[in-house]
Amino acid sequence: MGYLSSCNAESAIAVCDPYNCGFHRRKKPHKTKNNGEIREFAYADLVSATSGFSSGKFLGKGSHGSVYRAVLDNGKLIAAVKKTKMNCNIPADNEIEILSRVYHPRLVNLIGYSSDTLCENQLIVVEYMPNGSLYDLLHSASYKSPGWHMRVRFALQVAKAVRALHSSNPPVIHRDIKSSNVLIDQNWNARLGDFGLALRGQVEDVRFNCTPPAGTLGYLDPAYLEPADVSTKSDVFSYGILLLEIISGRRAIDMNHSPSSVVDWAVPLIEAGDFAAICDVRVGSPKDKEVVRSLTALAARCVRSDAGERPGIVEVVECLTAVRKRVHARPVWSNRRRCVKGVDKSLVRNSRKVSSVTSVVDHDVEATSDRMARTKLITEASAASVVVDTGLDEIGLDDDHMALVRGNRGVETKTPLMKLRKSRSMGFMQSPRPMNQNSKNYVSGI
């Protein structure tokens, strides 16, 4: 459920599941995995915190109710309050039941709940996500289209959220992974939310085998036709659709295109090796072609019709981690650009003064290892000495123009220096052995 948006074409399929009703009777509050107590709020306090569920506090509609912004604890806590539809408390109870037992920084976590004893409306209090949903970022004209760094980061963060669910004990199957259920927090990190359709337990459990299929059209696993078909690979299929959506900027189902399904459109292009054709035209393809090839190949594997041929979510996380490293990697020299400004004075022949360099500006330099460092020039050097710190050695000039080279281990040696008289720069040549400090023949003119 996107707390700041809704999409009627992609709304979750409502499921009547009388078998599960017995599993959702109110239980005593308990602690989550982060040792935080699940709070039971007074219904009146939540009504006040949302200004009576006013339109000014309205954030959006979800699969089983509306969401409002709430200000609690005298302004110290900003939260999102989900108000369920009348007589539709089963998804809300299910969300409380699961989120009270699962906590992860990549999830929209539960804060508390409240019940209206008169109207029997369930209220769920969860973390507030101020930057909308991934659906908004990808498809709304109000947002700037995210670049590849952000897209790959979001894809990896959602995969980590799914991994946390699948690796919990017992595992949780979300069953409704989609872009409108991926919310963006205050630090622009992706969080997976809406656990109204989620199932918790082993696949062979009776509850799993009695729960009808559910999900969102366009994201729903085609192999999930009956209760016994549900598995973690159903989530992997939905995630694959989401990944294609992130890569292409196209909705899971878009009637303005033919074919309308993003899978039917993208997979043939991937199989033909036309990876660039799948990339969102608003941002183009990544400079590193291996990035888009890896992303599209991974997405194609996730949406295979045979669930057994899909990768597990752990493998998905590993693949995306490697892709993200490639996205952030830059060539060593291509980004190292220096702009030297304001060289006031040229080198004076037979003078012990070095020309002043007013500023050196490094643009877009990213260190690639501990051995690579940017050059710093000391400005307005006087006759006494000048020091250049290269990050590897410290080089100075004594009063006789002898270059003092101080290594990283603190060893000082003297080396000959060459003045470039026809240039406004200075170079040095380091001797492989220490020089006789009494010799005066170590500076030569060109």
Structural commentary:
By secondary structure, this protein is α+β, with helices and mostly antiparallel strands. Among the domains are: 89 residues, Phosphorylase Kinase, domain 1, CATH 3.30.200; 197 residues, Orthogonal Bundle (Transferase(Phosphotransferase), domain 1), CATH 1.10.510.10. It has nine helices and 20 strands. A six-stranded mixed β-sheet has the order 1-5-6-4-3-2, sandwiched between helices. β14 and β15 form a beta hairpin. α4 packs antiparallel against α6. The chain is globular and about 60 Å long. The termini are far apart. The relative contact order is 0.09. The N terminus and C terminus are likely disordered. Belongs to the protein kinase superfamily. This is Protein kinase domain-containing protein. Pfam families: Pkinase.
Give the structure's gist in a few sentences.
The chain has helices spanning 43-49, 90-99, 134-139, 148-166, 206-210, 232-248, 262-271, 289-302, 313-328; strands at residues 39-40, 58-62, 65-72, 77-84, 110-115, 122-127, 172-173, 182-184, 190-192, 199-200, 337-343, 357-363, 376-377, 387-389, 394-397, 403-406, 412-415, 417-419, 426-428, 443-444.
Count all strands and give the number.
20
Taken as a percent bin, the fraction of beta residues is 15-25%
The CATH homologous superfamily name of one domain equals Transferase(Phosphotransferase) domain 1
Order of helices and strands: EHEEEHEEHHEEEEHHHHHEEEEEEEEEE
Coarse shape: globular
Q: Main beta sheet: strand number and arrangement?
A: 6 strands, mixed
Helix % is: 10-25%
Mean pLDDT: 76
So, CATH architecture of one domain?
Answer: Orthogonal Bundle
Task: Please work out how many helical segments DSSP would assign.
Answer: 9
User: Which residues form runs of ≥5 with pLDDT under 50?
Assistant: 1-10, 14-29, 338-406, 417-446
Provide the gyration radius in Å: 31 Å
Task: Supply the CATH class of one domain.
Answer: Mainly Alpha
Look up the CATH topology of one domain. Transferase(Phosphotransferase), domain 1
End-to-end Cα distance, whole Å, is 73 Å
Query: Order of strands across the biggest sheet?
Result: 1-5-6-4-3-2
Multimer state: single chain
GO molecular function: ATP binding; protein serine/threonine kinase activity
Protein name: Protein kinase domain-containing protein
Family: Belongs to the protein kinase superfamily.
Organism: Gossypium aridum
